[in-house]
Structures are given as structure tokens and as C-alpha cells.
């Protein structure tokens, strides 16, 4: 490839064609300030903070959106550039509330950071705030348009990455705001609660609905028996809130921290991930062998389920009826564990810690979420919320010992942990499906074809002569292509192109979930993913069906996969939903 | 929502434009031409027919000043507030019309007869100040003539 | 019938067999119609029929550009002389027939000067104006393709297709020195070359007919008066760069232009001058219209493309330029209406001819819409290099009502003002820029001593604030902040550091705004603050508006020496705050006065003072 030679601040650099000036500048040790730019997205070039001078151009150019060109001479900062940037920042601040103390992004906000770096002490221009109502209609996310700086990231994420189009710029000029169409609330909009907008917003204008207060209250209530579970992807990301590198596997510390917060029992969603595989795997084998509807499609991502119910209800018969690991754990806690521990489920309070905002919605998404006779999971908080709780409690996370979880609902296999990444559910399912079909165990449990960041991954797996075609999609917007491929085959009366499909709404899977610590980029996702696979590698058991506690729960309580009790507690159903409720 | 809500000619137009790229604005023009504004249920139906997200449609409607989401008056007055007309007293025309109609700019009179808005140059600056009523251009408008013009327009319908 | 090269020639020749007949041309652009041209036309039609005048031809045309005298009628006498009548109402139209046409002796009233000589008329004496882009306006009937063909219409396309390679066309356009008339003045030939040299399976030609500048209507006039010239040039551009599809993005506020374009496209297709296999060659080219919907920013080329694509018209950064990556990501030539209208003449008369007109860097002619406080407001086409003084005083008759010239705003709301000191600066792209204004698209608004620069600047800014797409922070927020500062200055609430604030924000807007709208929005206040600093200071420090325009800074008083006690003022005052007995001195109660100025208008004795 022909490299492009240019000069940045007088220093020669050579970059691949298409490299933006922002990235080229990094090579000479300069970080150009940005506000609207996010590496996941095409540069929208709105804010005007990243301007630089390019010799020969009378205007300043936006470094985020300008590709390095041969022979360019770029100046990234001089007094004039710094002044212009400061004025732009002051203008933005003049329409922004001074609300940092009460803001979800306090000390972790791109605007606040810039204001600090530019040493802004007062804004010379008149303050004009926009009196727009906060939208907290959904179970999961809150939109506060007053804090919005119109960077466009959320809309681009929602439209282009997620393909949902819940959010759009509405209005023009200074009246431009981010909102759902036709004056509906977010809850009435097609929003699938994936929370990717919250993960990408540079400021505190869209954020997770904070439910830590509810959790504290439950812990405080003496007669409540508080049970907590942590999802696979939480353990590799929570550390980011405490100064660890992304991807550090902190399961033991997490158990310790949760116990110190005052939970009566600490469980692990990885356990029910194994359980999900048992049910979903059995379901798949049954569909394969008994001529059920194919492809079978995973249903453990609630944002994806919501999407399917709204946009592609024709796939309802294809959906695995197995509940998600979060919901299975809730159901098992309030039945099996309650029995064993002698706790009245009425007094049990199940909290889950998830990388996900959609999980907040899932806990009450339909009536099967109360299979124990009570709401199976009482509240679902995100990784970010848990990090705050740990800080509120003053727990010195970095110096916590590794602790063990409570027994019964915590032991997990490598297959359970990889649920946290794209391709993980598929890989876990294949590891067990192989066994279920052949009654033999795999020698090599790695299915490399379903790993990685490609939007749609397809593979053919040979299970002793049975060819199983699988596909994995992540990042909601990538799924439509896959569905259309199936629809077309169906319309033509052809054989289904795939037998088994995994879908996760977030880029990279749950490690990139909408409730994870802010600032995820592909580099950070890669580290979290690596953490997950490390956790898998170091597990003694790599397949769900090898998990002794799983065997035990079937023996003690559930009977057999897809059995009557399992059906009652571990399965759910789907229904078509209107895209616009109002 | 039923497909039958849209008049045939609109459906024909949409059909004709359905497969053309960048059809949305042209279709919205046609909708507005027909209804005088873009009714909510029609916007939803257009989304359906063109297979465009509703949010995109509203993004577009609210971006362009010509598109209206509420029903205008039977007679639509547009007073030019372009530079030439401003310098020649366009603002006074608006004030006088507000006085005569008893309602402010961008509102419909209670009897639904008139609505008034300020528009940008309509390209007849040589005749400034200029206004249009239902598309017909009035040049060199004088405050004193307004009552007569309004009467004529109202009577003419 | 679909023409081939040969049949087109024969057809054109046949059309040229002119019969010496009297022709009556009625200017029927939107402007003329608004002024009553329809009534004039109907009267003429009826009177001619009544009189049985057999060899008088009555025609609708586009407009002459004499907006101040609309409706206008031109009588071309059989002997080659011609008379232009203005302000032709029905009664006068009747007289034109009964007196002029019937007797052959022109009337002496309502006669106006012929604005420009016909380019095609070899013997015509040179006049002040020179019409290239407007060559056919007010001469042909825009609704009849034959009239265009007769005046060498589609000959340039024919020449390009049969006698020139695309490279030769690019060279001819480049050599002519033609620069884009939409505002930025980018060399048209170079733009075409970029697109031509970018390999792609599909390319597009786009005509920018958004004409959003208030006070500008050059493009409307061309489209209403000579739509084929634009179609022809777009086809030439298509042939040159290898595009087979064109789009005209036209504002919906121009219904007549839209109708005439649609008709012209239909006619051109029927004649094989657009559509499949043009003139029997392998070149096919189609044109469709796309309508704007009330967004000035859609004149900006990337926003325009977004709008054609059916999206919100929000600009995107350049590079990449549309010439390389434009409509749906394909190489796209975007030119302005007037730019296109000029092209056929360049091909027919040669780059040398065009290049000889104008200044060193700005070639050819430019159409201006001269409006505001000018006596003869209208549309003019003049060679580049002409001075503002010539335009105002020689062509347009000076300032209306004999007041003093104060400033001219060129470049629309994002341009700058030119003061009396620069009346003799030759008008071209560079010199206008050097004095803080810009060529812009051709709107030229003349202001006199009654206009307050703070007020006008505030007006311009209100426009850009209203039209900002809202994408980028400097323009979206900076514009409103500056407007509010100007607003408070105009209300006597200005603060000492306001001018500095305006400068700071203005600088940031110029440098950090994404598109031309935000980059140029500060021009009006940056230029007026420079040339009229005193006037700003008067508002801020003395709380006075020297031009007597800013309402909140005015006080109305009655001059004891002049008041005769006629009571006219008191009767007009809407809040009854003027007291005084008949034939006695009247007094205004300042605490109640709402500064409406009615008393000032009412007093016949010049006794009410404004200040
Ligand atoms: C805010 C803005 C508005 C514009 N409006 C117009 C317009 O109405 N008509 C036009 O021809 N060019 C307009 N332009 C200039 C176009 O972006 C573009 O430069 C031009 O159409 C190119 O054609 P030309 O090279 O023939 O001038 C505008 C530019 C800006 C920044
Ligand atoms: S969004 Fe950022 S700058 Fe704004 S209030 Fe919150 S923390 Fe402060
Ligand atoms: S940072 Fe400043 S404003 Fe915020 S809490 Fe501390 S002292 Fe108060
Ligand atoms: S949560 Fe997901 S679907 Fe909902 S608005 Fe945000 S990005 Fe869009
Ligand atoms: S809500 Fe956040 S992400 Fe969305 S536009 Fe506003 S600031 Fe940007
Ligand atoms: S991928 Fe994971 S984090 Fe994202 S919405 Fe689905 S379940 Fe939640
Ligand atoms: S400068 Fe103004 S009009 Fe242009 S992109 Fe920015 S906000 Fe929009
Ligand atoms: S300016 Fe108006 S309110 Fe004041 S005295 Fe004169 S007429 Fe009365
Ligand atoms: S109109 Fe003039 S002269 Fe008459 S009373 Fe008023 S101020 Fe005096
Ligand atoms: S970061 Fe480049 S414009 Fe916002
Ligand atoms: S400014 Fe009013 S018509 Fe142009
Ligand atoms: S006479 Fe037509 S533009 Fe004025």
C-alpha cells in the first residue's frame, strides 16, 4: 500500500491512505481535542473543537473528518487555534447547565474534561438553557435534552449501528434537538433499550436509569434476603472504574465487593448461562432431529428480542424459548435456592448486575418473568451503577481479596463465561450440542470462526457428518441482512441457509454493552474480549454440560432439559409489538 | 391506519416515485399540496409505503420550513421578510396584518379563514414589499390596501 | 419529432426566415405577473384582435429586468426600431394598440431605455449592459423551444457532441476563465475536469437553483425567461464528464420557474435534445427536478446533495469535494443556474471572446439584482470590472427619493457592506473580498442614510440564525449569541465589551464553522463594525441611533418654534399621549409614548423631531 507522507507540526509522518488527521497526529504525540467524534462512527464533524490549520486552506479544517493527504502541512495548535477552540467551547458551555455535581457523567464527561483542560473559569457569553423536559419514560434510559450538545452520536448509533431509528435530530438550527419522532416518548418509540446511545453520548444527556437507591433500600430492609448475580461481561469491565486496564478478570474481587455491600448471597449469571445452554441446546437438537422451525435463533439478549418483536415478528417461531441467563437465575433463586436456603421467596430480593440497560426492561418484559410467583429478578443494575455503589460504600476495590461465590447458583464452565462476547453463545451451544448429538466430547472446544468483530460471521460445523450451518451477528443493524437472507430462501422454498443463529444487540456482544463503563472503543472491546477468553481458557471445565452444579440442579430440582418444570421456569414466549405505541 | 386513507392521486404519485432514490421530499411536497399540511397519520403511512423510518420523516419535516405539521388557514398569507422587503417596510405589513387579523404570526385565525407567516425572499424584490396569498403574488403592498385585499380574498372563496 | 444533427440545422434555418413583422413582447416573469402583466397581456390581445392588426405578433417572454417599471411591454417595430414601455396597466395597453400599433408612431409616455443590446444583433450599438446569461430573456417565449432553437439554441450541444472531445470542452471552458456564479467563484472548467478525471460507473450533473439569498432573483429570471439554456448546458456538462443524469434542485417558492422547466424538459425530450441518444449520437442525458422546501442552507452544495437524497439538508465536510464524491457518493458537477446559462455562449463564441470581457481574474458578465433604496430597482447584467458607482448612478438612476447613499450589501446576508469610499472599486471576486464583502450570487442591496447599520446587521443575522442547520456549535450557538448582543445594542443596552465579544465569536465562527453559512455569517457585523464603528458606539455609549431607526433609542419631541397646533399628531397618536389645545403648542408625554412614529408622519409642519 502506498503510504501517505505529510508533516504535522513540522514533523514528517507517514500514514495509510484514509487515516484521519486525528490519528495521524497521534503518531507525533499530539492528542487533538474532540467532542463529537467517536471511533465507532463515521465522523459527523459537528462540534468544531478539533479544528487544525492545513497550509493552503484559508479555513481551519476538522481533523476528525479530514483524511491525511500527500504533502499536507498541518498545524495542530498555535495561539489562534487554541483561542478558536476555547471560544467554541465557551459557546457550548453557554448553552449547557452547570450541573456537574448532579450529573451521571461527573468526572467522566468529555465536555467537563475539555472545560477543565482549557481552564475555563467563566463563560463570557449569556447563558441560554433550553427548557426541554426530561424523558424518563423507559425502564432503562433517561434522555435529558438540556444537557445535549447535539454531537449526533446517539442518533448515528441508534440509526446506523443499531438500525432502530428511535432517535433523530428534530427541528433545525438552534432548536435542533434529539428526540423520537412525532412527539412520542422514548417508551412509545421503537427504542429497544440497548443503551448504546448512553454508551456513546460524550456527556450526561442520555444515561442509564439509576436504580442503586432501590438496591440500597432492599439491602437496608432487614427482613429482605438480598441475592445478587453478576453477568459474564461485568467481570472484565468493572475494573475500568477502578483504574484497571480493560479486560482484567476480576471475578473474585467482585464477589468480595458484593458481599461487603451487604448481599446475603452472591451468585453468578455464568451458572445460568450454562443452564441456558442446556435448555437451548436441547431445544436446538430437538428442532434439528424432530423437524422443528429452523434456524433457531438465540434470545438471551433482551434488546434483540425487543427488536425482533417490533421489526421482525415473522421470526417469532424461530426464537429459542429459553429464557436469558439473568432470568433463569432469578427464577432459580426464588424457587430452588429459596427452598434450599429456607427463605420465603416473598422476602427474597434478586439484584442482577449486568453490562446492559435492556436487562432493566427484561425483568418485567412479560408475564413469564414472574415464573417463581414473584418477579423473578427485582432489579437489574448496570456495571456503571455497581461501580458507583462500591465507591459509595468506600470499598477499596483494588485491595480486595479474591472470594468465592455462594454455592448452588454460581459455579460455571468456560462455556458460561463466553456468553459475554459475540459468538460466545454459539460457541458454548456448539460445545454442548456436539455432545448431545454424538454423546461424545469434543477434543478441541474452540470455534474460531464464530469469534471476532466481523458484523456477521457464518460457519459450517461438521458434527460427525451432520453439517450445521451457523451464523452470528452483533450490533443490531447487522441483523437485517441476515434475516433477509433467510426470508429470501424461505420465499423461494429453498433450504434454510442456517440452522442456528446467535444475535447480540451490542457491538462485540455484552462486553460492549450499553451499561458498561464509558469510553468503549474497538481497542477496549478487544481487551475485554480477551479477558473473557482468558477466563474460559483457565476454566477447568469448558462445556456447560460438564458443570457439576448444572447436573445437580437437574437431578435435585428441574428434572431434565425441556422437561415440565424446566418449561415452567426457564422458558418464555414472544409476541408482536407495535413499533410506535402512540 | 388503512391504506385507503390516502387519496388515489397521492397513492399513484407515491407508487410512481417509490423506487426513485431521494423521493421523500418530493412525496412530502405532494402530501402537503393535498392536505395543506402533513397530518400525522399520513406521515406514518408514507413511512410505511416508502419503507422509511418514521423518525427520518419527522427529521426531514421539521428541518424544512415549508413543511407544516398543523393545518393552516383556508387562505394562507405569506409576507416576505427578505432583505429588500424588510428595508421597504415588510415588518410594518406584518404588524398591520396582525392587527387586522387579530392573531400573531404563524397562527390561524379562530374562524380558520386566514393564517399568516413570514417567508424569505420570493424573488420579486423589485416590487418590495411583497406578500403572497394562496400563492398569488402582491407587490408594492401598502398598509392601507390590506383591508381591501383581505376582504377580496375572503369574498372570493 | 426527434432531431438529428442535420434536421436540427434545417429546422433552425427555417425558423430564421424572419418576416418583418411588428412584435409585442410582454414580460411575464413572476414579478411582471405580480405587477399586473396578465391584465396587460389580455388587453393587448383583445385590442389587437379588435383592431384586426394582422401582422402584429403578441408574445409572452421572461422579464426585461426593469422591475421598477413592471409590467413592461416592448414593441419591436417592423423597421427594426424598438420601444420599451413600463407601468403598462390595462388602459395604457389599450393605448399601445390604438395609438402606437395602429399608427406606427410610438407613444412618448412611459417609455424606458432599452437595457441592453441583443448579443445576436451584429449591428446593435453597445449599451451599458451586456447580456450573456440573460441573452434570451425578454426576447423569446420561454415556453416554446423553437424560439430558443432559432437563436442558436442547442447549437452548443450540437457542437460539443459532433466537433469536440470532452477534453476540448473542458479546455474551452477553462480558457474562458468562467468562474462559478453561485458565490464562491470556483473555476468551472477545473471543476468539470475533476469530475471528468474521476473514474466511476455513474456520475451526475446538478444545477443549483436554490437561490435562497433574500434580495436575489437572477436565477429565477433565467429559469423563467430562458430555461433551455440551462438544460443545454447541463447536457454539455454531462457529455463532458461522462454523466447521463442531471438534477435541477430548485426552490419550491418558484412555481412558475418549475412549470417552465418541466415544460422545457418535456419539449427537449420530444425533440431528441434530451433523453436517449441525443441528436442520434450515443450520448443520453436525462434531467429531473427536485424541489427544495424552505432551507437556505440547502444552497450549500453538500447540503443540497443531502436534500436531493431525501435527507435533512445538513452539510458535510469537504474534502472530499462533490466533484469527486457527490450525489450518492458519485462524482458530481454542481453549478449555479447563471453559470450554466453562460456556457452555451462560451462554446459558440469561443473562450477568447468571453475571456476578453471583464478583469484579469474575473471574466465575462455578472447578473445583479439591485434592490433596496435604489431608484430603478431591477435586474442587470454587466461586465465584470464595472464600478458600483456606474451601477448605482448610471444604470439604476441613483438613490430613491434623492437621499444619500450609505452602503451597498453584496453577497446577501453573508456578505459585507461596501461604503461610499469604495464606490469606484471595480467589481470582481478579488477586489470585493479585499474590501470585506464578496461577490456572492448577485444580490445587491442599496441602503441610504435612513438605514441603521446595527439594525440591518441584526436583520441579516436573524436570517442566518434562522437558517442555520444547527449542526455545528460555532454557527448554531455563536449566531444566536451575536444576534442577542446586536439586539441589546439596538435597544440601548449594549455593554462596553460587546464589540470585542462580537469580534471573538465572529472569528471563531469564521474559522470553526463547518460550512459557508456559518463561516460567512459574521461578515455583516465584522464589516459594519469596521466601517461604521462610530454608529455602533453611538448606540452603546450615547444610547442613540444616528439613523433614527432603532425604535427603543428614539425620542419624539415637538419643536416649539415649528408647532402650529394643528392637532394632527394628537389625533393620530395611538396611546393619546400628546396634549395641547388647538392652535397651541403640543407636548408629548414621554413616559407614555410607545415610539410608534405616527406623530412624526402626521405632522405637516416638520415640528415633530425624531432623535
Ligand atoms: C449557505 C450557502 C448557500 C448557498 N446558496 C446557493 C444558491 O442558492 N445558489 C447557488 O447557486 N449557490 C449557492 N451556494 C454556493 C454553492 O455551494 C456552490 O458553490 C455553487 O452552487 C457552485 O456552483 P458555481 O460554481 O456554478 O457557482 C451557497 C453556498 C452556501 C455556503
Ligand atoms: S454533562 Fe458533563 S459538563 Fe454537563 S453537567 Fe454533566 S458532567 Fe457537567
Ligand atoms: S469542583 Fe468546584 S464547583 Fe464542583 S464541587 Fe468542587 S468546588 Fe464545588
Ligand atoms: S437505547 Fe438503543 S434503541 Fe434506544 S434510543 Fe438508545 S440506541 Fe436507540
Ligand atoms: S444526547 Fe448525547 S450523544 Fe446524543 S446528540 Fe446529545 S450529546 Fe450527543
Ligand atoms: S448484547 Fe448484551 S449488553 Fe447488549 S443489549 Fe444484548 S444483552 Fe444487553
Ligand atoms: S455552519 Fe451553520 S449551517 Fe453550516 S453546518 Fe454548521 S450549523 Fe449548519
Ligand atoms: S411616537 Fe407614537 S406614541 Fe409616541 S407620541 Fe408619537 S404617536 Fe404617540
Ligand atoms: S402635527 Fe405638528 S404642527 Fe400639528 S400639533 Fe402636532 S406637532 Fe404641532
Ligand atoms: S470532533 Fe471533529 S468536529 Fe467534533
Ligand atoms: S426580499 Fe422580498 S421578494 Fe425578495
Ligand atoms: S422585472 Fe422580472 S425580475 Fe424584476
Structure description:
The complex is a heterotrimer of chains A (582), B (157) and C (611). In chain A, 34% of the residues lie in helices and 13% in strands. By secondary structure, chain A is α/β, with parallel strands linked by helices. Chain A folds into three domains: 4-77, Ubiquitin-like (UB roll) (Roll); 91-208, 2-Layer Sandwich (Alpha-Beta Plaits), CATH 3.30.70; 213-570, Rossmann fold (3-Layer(aba) Sandwich), CATH 3.40.50. The longest helix of chain A has 22 residues, at 269-290. The mean pLDDT of chain A is 96. Chain B has 157 residues and is α+β, with helices and mostly antiparallel strands. Chain B folds into two domains: 8-63; 75-155, 3-Layer(aba) Sandwich (Glutaredoxin). Chain B has helices at residues 8-17, 24-35, 40-50, 54-63, 83-87, 90-101, 146-155, and strands at 75-80, 114-119, 131-133, 136-138. The radius of gyration of chain B is 18 Å and the shape is elongated. Chain C has 611 residues and is of the alpha/beta class. Helices cover 40% and strands 15% of the residues of chain C. In chain C, the strands form six sheets. In chain C, strands 2-1-3-4-5 form a five-stranded mixed beta sheet, covered by helices on one side. A five-stranded mixed beta sheet of chain C has the order 13-12-16-14-15, sandwiched between helices. Chain C has a four-stranded parallel beta sheet with strand order 10-9-8-11, sandwiched between helices. The termini of chain C are far apart. The chains are: A alpha/beta (582), B alpha+beta (157), C alpha/beta (611). At the B-C interface, helix 2, helix 4, helix 5 and strand 4 of B face helix 2, strand 12, strand 16 and helix 17 of C. The complex binds flavin mononucleotide, iron/sulfur cluster (SF4) (8 copies) and FE2/S2 (inorganic) cluster (3 copies). Residues 194, 301, 303-304, 355-356, 358-359, 504-506, 509-510, 513-514 of chain A line the site of one iron/sulfur cluster.
